[in-house]
Amino acid sequence: MKKALVVLVLLMMMSTLVFAAGSKETAAEPAASKKIVIWTNLTADAQAKVLRKQFTEVAAEMGVEVEMVTISFNDMYTKLATAVESGNVPDIMHTNFAGTAYLYSQDIILNMDDVIDKIGKDDFISSYLHVLNAEGKTWGIPDWALHTSVWYRKDLFQEKGIKIPTDWAEFKAAAQKLNIDEDGDGKIDVYGFPVPLNAVQVAPQTYYEFLYSAGVTTFDPKTGKYTFGSQKKKAVEVTDYLIDLYKTVSPPSSIEWSWNEYRNALVEGTVAMTLDMGAVIGLAQNNNPEMVEKLGCFDLPGQFGNKPASFGSGYAFVVSNSGSATEIETKKEFIHRLYTSERAAERALSRPMFAFPSLYSALEIYKQSPSVALFQDQIATISDAFENSNWYWYGMEHGLSQMSSQIEATTFFGEALQSVALGMQTSVKAVDFIDQQLQEQISIIE
Amino acid sequence: MGNLRLIRQDRRFRPQQQTLGIIFIIPMVAFLLVFVVYPVLYNIFLSFTNARLIKKDYSFINFDNYKKIFTDLRFLTYVKNTVVWTVASVIGQLSLGLMIALMINRKSSGTGLRSFLLIPYVVPAVAIALVTKWVMNGDYGIISYWFQTLGLIEHRQSPLAIPGSAMAVLVIVNVWRSYPFPMLIYWATLKGIDKELYEAASVDGAGTIQSFLHITLPHLRDTTIVLVVLRIVWTATYFDLPWLITGGGPAGSTTHLPIMIYQASFGTFQTGYASSLSVILGLSLFLCVVFYVRKTISNDSGR
């Protein structure tokens, strides 16, 4: 009797555990039809606020319930990987192009060509659609894009009689002139150009702008073949130039700088130029309004003047392929309603000069906003780069590639470049190491 | 043994006690099976495969992951970093914890002071990391400014951007954050030492230092053994602070094994490789602890 009691209790406990684990899936099924779960990596207040507002509006129009979950960019791959592994991917994801590549590689998102046609394919800036292309299909709807430019102090350029540089030699000369000792104590107070090398994402972003400017790519943009290995000599030149800039015109601590540090440095006036995606404008508007009208931007010149490509990316809406046909249609309709010109412009304007809308009609609204009124020339420069030049996100030179998320989620670029900057390794060895790591990543993906 | 004999003699209650005992231990056994035994065994299993987070299928590759680890030159550097981080942190935590425990053991210290001293232990690691990065910033961080003014580092340099000092900063922050635990344990032990021992020593002419060396320290020996074991395990596997403050940089100088495991798992998505690193870390800690405890016990019995 006692034994039976023990066995009974054991069985009850085990069955509780089993059914508690299994009930998640069955309980989630009916909820999925009522509620649309959207993940976004945009955790900046202004952007998250606009997204939440628009999601609520569209949900009310359609009579559905929506839940927005913000996930910090640094946690994105950890969360995505575990979500994919557990099968709990969100209905819609608002993520960057690399995140889109990752989700595409997992075969869990829908191609969105039908929705793009419904919105009006001609209204999309074609290069935005190209980035999200694989197998002849578009796997996300581009929301906005960002472009890396050199943001600089117009007043200091004028004061020092510096013209916009047209090649790397001129660029270094300009940066050296902008190393300024304001109080004559023999110490540099304003550095010409910071080289931020924080290993978590920032180092590869800095490096790739220079690699692209010199014509080095991870993959051949036309064939998709791995090319970094055959361009190592050029990559060593790029590395040497970058490290030379670090040693001569960049604050010593910039080896550990991330986005906040280099943006703040320009806004607070302790550096004269920086590579950035335009986020410095929003920062200056909030923290140092006097600096806003002193800032301008130009495209980093090519090594010898001609620039093959530059570094850029953006955000897209992607839709998971889970759920019934009706649920999928609901999700697609939800996205479609987010793409009125006004809504697309409003989302991009939540981070002025950083985000550029994917629709031409939205770009016209964008240009007329008071928050970017001062920057019509800069908008023209960046729009021109988007429309008429090549721009890639690392590893996505041939379209969507999971290599991009592998680069983004690892720190080997930063480790290699920091080692060279600290004199712990030669640039040749660093480039060999990067090549070896990239090839290893390719083998992992394949 | 005595208790067992008593239970055997009192046969009237044995079946009831057995049933009740089994029922009581079922939740804990179930918990351990699900959350400890299964993950550990599964981790060991994965370490012999080429499992990846991004792919469902995998195959057995025998010891390939282990071979790869031991032929990776960076692995030795990361092991060295792990040892420096762990040993320096544990010594610092225990020393500071003991000093403060001795201080609060005096009659004059009040509850307010003791509560205040516990604050570092309850501050979230994220907050500590943000403040550390702020005060260490080469441009506006107060500590960097002091170091720059004293000529210890270059103008507009940060201790976090120099390999040796970055590790030193991490250790100091970790010691500050973790000393309250050894402090509490030491304080509880100090409370248990018979006051008469000190009085007798005083009568015999022993000074404060002699009393500390010959009465206090021997009484803290067992506590220290337990603390060293616990702190070694917790520190060697502590990921949050190093990752949030330096991300393993500059140039991998603060990358320790937990960061390497994280990178392998969520950076390059090599679950099998990350599992083998975890096995190595777990096994190393196990051997360290066994060696330390056995050595300490053998020293004790040799006396």
Structure keywords:
heterodimer; A: about 450 residues; alpha/beta; D-Maltodextrin-Binding Protein, domain 2; three-stranded antiparallel beta sheet; 20 helices; B: about 300 residues; mainly alpha; MetI-like fold
Characterise the protein shown here:
The complex is a heterodimer of chains A (446) and B (303). Chain A contains 20 helices and twelve strands. With 446 residues, chain A is of the alpha/beta class. Chain A has two domains: 177 residues, 3-Layer(aba) Sandwich (D-Maltodextrin-Binding Protein, domain 2); 210 residues, 3-Layer(aba) Sandwich (D-Maltodextrin-Binding Protein, domain 2). In chain A, strands 1, 2, 3, 6, 10, 11 and 12 form a seven-stranded mixed sheet that branches. Chain A has a three-stranded antiparallel sheet with strand order 8-7-9. A two-stranded antiparallel sheet of chain A has the order 4-5. In chain A, helix 4 crosses helix 18. Chain A starts with a helix and ends with a helix. About 4% of the residues of chain A have low confidence. Chain B has two domains: 40 residues, no CATH class; 211 residues, MetI-like (MetI-like fold, Orthogonal Bundle). In chain B, helix 12 runs antiparallel to helix 15. The radius of gyration of chain B is 25 Å and the shape is globular. The two termini of chain B are 27 Å apart. Classes of the chains: A alpha/beta (446), B mainly alpha (303). At the A-B interface, helix 1, helix 3, helix 11, helix 19 and helix 20 of A face helix 2 and helix 14 of B.
